[in-house]
Amino acid sequence: MLSVLQWGAAVFAVIAAALWLKSAMVKTPSSFPIHVVQPDSLSSPFGGPFGGTHVGQGQSPALKKLGEALCRQSKWSAAAAAFAAASALCQSFTIALDVVK
After folding, report:
1. CA pair distance 94, 101, nearest whole angstrom
2. Tens digit of pLDDT per residue, the chain (101 long)?
């Protein structure tokens, strides 16, 4: 029973590390463009931008900081996931070597 639990823990750790690494590799933007559109009166009863007139673009310092923070977070998360994967693989090899012995 203990061996089954150890194998389960090792397998779940490898899967978790792989998913964490995949999550950390998602590209996050460092900036968020803001498009300003003035809706036409006939375009939508809710004032949607379809058929509207492009007025300009803008930027937000807060959104830029958020984008930069998300990029840093992703890099640290990727490093942590890589170490978790290495740990899980070491545990898996330890269990496999114990079984072969």
Report:
1. 11
2. 667 777 787 788 888 878 887 877 777 776 677 777 776 666 555 555 566 676 777 777 788 888 888 888 888 888 888 888 788 788 878 878 877 77
> What are the backbone dihedrals phi and psi of residue 58, each rounded to the nearest 5 degrees, phi first?
-145, 180
Q: Which two tokens stand for residue 3?
A: 């061996």
pTM for the model stands at 0.53
Q: C-alpha angle with apex 27: 24 to 63, nearest 5 degrees?
A: 105
DSSP 49: S
Number of domains comprising the chain: 1
Tokens of 69: 């923070």
First CA to last CA across the chain, in angstroms?
Answer: 18
For residue 81, count CB atoms less than 10 angstroms from its CB and return exposed for 0-12, middle for 13-18, buried for 19 or more.
buried
Range of the domain at 86: 2-100
Q: Where are the alpha helices (DSSP H) in the chain?
A: 2-24, 61-100
